[in-house]
Amino acid sequence: MPAPENGQGPITVHYNKYDGDSKVGTPSSVEVDLVIGADGANSRVAKEIDAGEYDYAIAFQERIRIPGGLWLCSG
Length: 75
What we know:
Layout: E1 11-17, E2 26-32, H1 44-48, E3 62-66, E4 70-74
Antiparallel strand pairs: 1-2, 3-4
């Protein structure tokens, strides 16, 4: 996830796309304006952008009800 030149413009995120029950992903990429690293205390996102070392982590947990009576949980 290289930083955009001169700190401006979209960020290209590379990932593996998994279709159906496939255990093999297809390399893909997407351009975005913002990346939120919500992947835990040993964040791969933080390491990728060289965010440095921290002695603490802040965690949030959310539960959102979506149509159809399903719940989306994070955290």
